[in-house]
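Thanks for the sequence, V.! I ran NADH-ubiquinone oxidoreductase chain 2 right away. Repeating your input here for the record:
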Amino acid sequence: INPTSITIITLSIITGTIMTMSSSNWLMAWIGLELNMLAILPIISKPKTTRASEATIKYFLTQAIASAMMLLSSTTNAWQTGNWDIPELKNKFSTTIMTLSLMMKMGAAPIHFWLPEVLQGTTLQTALLITTWQKLAPISLMYMISNNIQPALLMSAGILSMIVGGLGGINQTQLRKTMAYSSINNLGWTIMIMALSPNLAVMNISIYIIMTTPIFLMMTNMSTKTLQNLTTTWTTSTTTTLSIALLMLSTSGLPPFTGFMPKMLALNELITQKLTTLATLAIMTSLFSLLFYLRIAYLIMVLTSPMT
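Predicted structure:
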C-alpha cells in the first residue's frame, strides 16, 4: 500500500474511534464505527493470501451485522422515546439489542466466533490493531449506556466469555489464536464488572491493552507465529523471550504481576455486592486461561530446545 493510502487509512481509523467516543448522538457514533470498519478492511486484506481475503470478508460481515443491529436498536429507542441521545437508551428491547451488537463488535462470547478466525488470517500487526484499538469505541459506548443495561445480561455474557476464552485457548498451537482467546477471556472480565463499576471496567481494558501491545510487538519483531517458534526464540534474543513470558503471566492475572490488580479489584467489588457465587465462578474460569499462559511461559523458560 502506498504512503498516501496508509495516511488516509490511519487517519480514518483514528478519526472513526474518536468520533464514536466523543459523540452524544447514536447516528454520529454509528458513522464513526462505520468509518473505522471500512478503513481497517484494506489493512486486513493486505497480505495477498486466501486466508487474508477470507478474514476480511468475515470481519466485514460480522461488523456490518452488528452495525445494523445498532441502527435497529437506536431507531426503535428514538421511535419510543423521541430521543437520539446515547445515555437516554431507556427502552428494554433497544438496550438488549444494543448490548448484543456492541458485544459482537468487540468479539465477546457468545458472538465471538469471528475473532480467532480473523486474527489467524492476518498479520501480527493487524491482529494487534483488532485486539486493542478496535475495542475502544464499542467499550466506550457500552460504558455510556452501562446504567441502562440489565446487570444479569452483562454478567452472564462476561462469565460465558471467560469460559470460552479459557477453554478455547488451551488447545491452540497458533499464537494469534491463543491471543484471540486471551482477548475474549479478558473482555469477559471487562463486561462482567461493567455492570457494577464501569470505571473499573475501563481500567481493566486499559491495563489489558498496555500488556498486549508489547507482546504483539515482540512477536512481530521475532516473527513468531506458533508455539513451536517460541521454543527457539531464546537463541536469538533472551531478553525479549523472557519479557514475553513475564507479560503472558501478567496478562493471566497471576500475582504479583500488574494484571492481577484489576482482577483483584473486580473480585473485591463482586464480594462487596454479595455476589460470592459469581466471584467463585470467575476465579475458577480464570484458572483455565492461566493454564495456557503458563504453558507458553513454561515452553519459553523451562524447556531447553535442541541447540541451533
